[in-house]
Amino acid sequence: MASPAALYRCRVMHRRPGRPRYRFAYRSFYLLLDIDAIDDACAMSALISRNRFNVLSFNDADHGAHRADQSLRTWLDGLLDRHGVDLDGGRVQLLTMPRVFGYGFHPISVFYCRHADGGLRAVVVEVHNTFGEHHFYVLHEHGARLAWGAAQHKAKAFHVSPFIDRSGAYRFHFAEPAARLGVGIRLFQKGEADEARRLRIATTLTGERRALTTANIFLAVSRVPFMTMKVTAAIHWQALKLWLRGAVFHRKPNQNKPNVS
């Protein structure tokens, strides 16, 4: 039987090739959870809990319908059904940052959605900004199998950074999460024939898999203490540095409704 969870020691890199050129990276850690076995995952260590305070915790209301009274499976099956995708009860894994000492912020979470035959049918990307908003990008081919690592495209529909407007399109790449983790996201603007000149920002999330044990949780938290607080602080700190370098500021527009694309 497959493990209900794993921990990934990660490195996140952001690169902005346009003016002002900018690049930064930071360490983090993510959990990979079977959405139908979250209780089993939390039973793997005394340092992780569901819907209550601990060193690490997973709160149901942080994701999906953002309601504790609706399961992630019910919400996700309904979302995919509206996009013509039926998993037939297949396995879904969620890659996300846990809450750390009760504080949670989830810049990006990824639902890997497999059919009962084991094939990948959809990837749902849940993005949160620092304004308390969230958006879902549903990547699929109308029920056809998706190839791991293949490019998936979506128009940008959600405000994340005040230094990038809400135009352009994303190109996503997802490697199958195994011993190593790989997520790549690039944002391209329209108009330029040269792809390199159209690139506005490139982000990668890479990591190495570890068993979800008390020892590995302790090592991860020791390596990046108060991680979710640091990520929130780093977002504002990097934004200040971009502003000081002369990056063009864009006011936050009203959020698109519905918050799914």
Write a structural description.
By secondary structure, the chain is α+β, with helices and mostly antiparallel strands. The chain has one domain. 18% of the residues lie in helices and 35% in strands. The protein contains five helices and 13 strands. It has helices at residues 38-42, 72-81, 195-198, 214-223, 227-244, and strands at 5-16, 22-34, 48-50, 56-58, 92-96, 99-100, 108-114, 120-128, 134-140, 152-155, 169-174, 180-188, 199-210. The strands form two sheets. A ten-stranded antiparallel β-sheet has the order 9-8-7-5-2-1-13-12-11-10. It has a three-stranded mixed β-sheet with strand order 3-4-6. The model has no long low-confidence stretch (mean pLDDT 93).
Tell me, what's the shape?
A: globular
Question: Ranges with pLDDT <50 over ≥5 residues?
Answer: none
Structural class of the secondary elements? alpha+beta
Report the major sheet. Answer: 10 strands, antiparallel
Give the N-to-C terminal Cα separation: 34 Å
Q: How much helicity do the residues have? A: 10-25%
Strands across the major sheet, in which order? Answer: 9-8-7-5-2-1-13-12-11-10
| Element order: H for helix, E for strand | EEHEEHEEEEEEEEHEHH
Count all strands and give the number: 13
Q: Beta-strand percentage?
A: 35-45%
Number of domains: 1
What is the gyration radius calculated from CA atoms? 18 Å
Number of helices: 5
Q: pLDDT average, as an integer? A: 93
